[in-house]
Amino acid sequence: MKNFRVEHYELTRRYFLQLGAAGLAAQQLLPLAAAEEKAPLQQAISELEYLTPQDEFQDVSRGNPLPHKLSAEEKTAAGLTRETWRLEIVADPESDSDLRNPLSLEADNALDWDGLMSLAKQRTVAFPKIMTCNNLGCPLGMGIWEGVPLRDAIWLTKPRKNVRRIFYHGFHNHDPQQIFRSSLPIGRVLEDPLGLPPVILCFKLNGEYLNSERGGPVRLVAPEAYGFKSVKWLNRVTLTNLFHANDTYAAKNNDIDSWLKTFAATISIAQELKPEQPIPVTGYAQVGISGLSKVQYLVTPADDDPPADDPYLTQADWQDADILAPPTHWGGDLPSDALLKRTLGFTPQGQPEKWPLRLSKAHWATVVPGLPEGEYTFRCRTVDANGIAQPLPRPFAKSGRNAIEQIDLTVSAV
Fold this sequence. Notes:
This protein is elongated. Helix 1 (2-21) crosses helix 2. By secondary structure, it is α+β, with helices and mostly antiparallel strands. Helices cover 15% and strands 28% of the residues. Strands 3-1-12-7-8 form a five-stranded mixed sheet. The protein has two domains: 2-47 and 261-411, Sandwich (Immunoglobulin-like), CATH 2.60.40; 55-252, Sulfite Oxidase, Chain A, domain 2 (Alpha-Beta Complex). The longest helix has 20 residues, at 2-21. It has helices spanning 2-21, 35-46, 72-78, 113-122, 150-154, 186-190, 338-341; strands spanning 86-91, 98-99, 111-112, 125-131, 141-149, 159-161, 165-170, 181-185, 200-205, 208-209, 219-221, 234-240, 263-269, 272-273, 279-287, 294-301, 319-320, 322-323, 360-368, 374-383, 405-411. Residues 1-8 and 21-38 have low confidence and may be disordered.
């Protein structure tokens, strides 16, 4: 964390130098040469993170008791240790899917940890992904997830015909009422469209084996999807010829086929300000399936409501913020930066091939010009790589939250 903060201090210093070269003083903002005026934004950016250590992810696990809170003996009995983990990959008995070699506990050939590691010797995949809950307004954490493509395990079953979808779930106390299920089209598992990483049997996060709270020993990770598709404590995959999904979230009025959206949020902004005092702001952007081209902000009087015919303020005078460069120290308790050199989307030198990375996050910062006394509303938004501004093209909460954030500001001389 110390190295990470040093890195962000350097990013901030370069950021201010860039703004100075662009003539920030001519825009009647603060003179950037004054260190005491730069300090608030430097401090705010110094506290940002990029990769999230495993222990610092937010948790929205399901189960009673939560599987990761079971005792060591209970985890061993439940197959929640690397020594006892087993994954069944079988045909759906309610459909006509045909597998020549189903992997099951009954046949004593379910995939175990040694079998998974044997597949891992042939090919492992690592990719950056921000993990976000469909129904929360902020991500749970950002990491580099590593594992074996799920299709490599599926081919071990020698499927022959009548497979249209996979159903899967993890351990949930052998209580049918607690099973958390999800599903994917078989085509998405067997092929990686649009330059996406593969769906994986994940066993590492940020270079370390998954801990129990993160879904270890093995979870599924679907790169472009919200967290409910990346089921923890995975122990069963069912190949089916049924055309419909069976996701637990489907019964909760959610769009289960939604991809990650692009949106912006603030991390640091002073809400009580002196007149004409420049306002340093920092934030992050979740970079969804459609990428990210801009982060923008808008300051309006507090009593100015959006026009009825323009609820998303598409005609307002939005101003561009600055998307910060990628860090050179990534945080997240990486054992070494060697992982980055073999991570999809990075060069052999461990640098991002493009920035920002899809399905990831980026940090942004700006200095808002000082304001007269009064009450104001600060908003921020993204513009994706297709030129579409948040919350469009998908403004509906059922497919993931990305409403335009609003923050109240008070400017007073008192």
